[in-house]
Amino acid sequence: MSLSTFIRVLIRNWWLVVLATALTVGSTAIFVLMQKPVYQASTIVELKPSAVLEDPNQILNTINALTRRNVINTIARKATSMSMHEEVARELNVPVEAVLAAQVRTITPPETNLIEVRAQSADPAFAALVANTVARNMVGQDYEKVIAVEVIDPAMPPTSPIAPQPLRLLTLGFVFGLILGVAFALLEQALQSLRSGVGLPGIDMSATQTPALSPAEAAISPSASSTDE
Fold first, then answer.
1. Residue 3 is part of which domain span?
2. What is the rounded distance in angstroms from the CA atom of residue 51 to the CA atom of residue 150?
């Protein structure tokens, strides 16, 4: 199909493109309106040698230990454990399911001794409260009395949600609806061509062969009769 034919098909079936796009964008907008906003709060803690260490060798060994990612990853993993969720739930006097729904996660930026604690909730204040409580419990834990945890950036209630993202979703809905509309327009053109017997562009319908006749049909066909005469 040439470009000019493609454009003519789209112009002829423009209403299909508009209808598919409108329906897709409309359904996406309804989906966005039905979704509750989700807020994410985060706090950052730093791992460093404990202040009780006095021996320079112990301090140096602790610094070397913190350069190994397995140490930081282990501490970060404990922050998302079930025991941590239960401890946070007890401190906040809420069901543990509420803390689990906050989807506490930890991020360990490379080449740093930092751990970012993230929590999500439909209530921005609760998201910040969970993140700060997890960080506070990390500070209170005893990591072999050599590693100390310090909160350097406490979580604040976020002012804007991370989901849903209306502009992004509506843009994706518009693009998907446009593609769907173009596909419907091409399908309608193909069906119309088949119904009218014209055929699809680039396909010669006259080139199709007539099915062979059986011996009985050939004996009574007009062409056979005229030959006999």
1. 1-35+164-188
2. 11
Q: Residue holding tokens 């609806």?
A: 177
Provide the pLDDT confidence category of residue 99 given band limits of 50, 70 and 90.
Answer: very high
Residue 223 forms part of a structural domain: no
Number of domains in the chain: 2
- pLDDT at 229 > cutoff 60: no
pTM of the model as a whole: 0.67
Cα separation, 163 vs 99, whole angstroms: 19
Claim to verify: residue 93 and residue 120 sit in the same structural domain: yes
pLDDT in tens, 147-179: 888 999 999 999 999 988 888 888 999 999 999
Confidence of residue 209 (pLDDT cuts 50, 70, 90): very low
The answer to the question of residue 216 being in a domain is: no
| Contact between residue 130 and residue 99 where contact means Cβ atoms under 8 Å apart | yes
Domain CATH code at residue 73: 3.30.70.1130
Residues 144 and 43 grouped into a single domain: yes
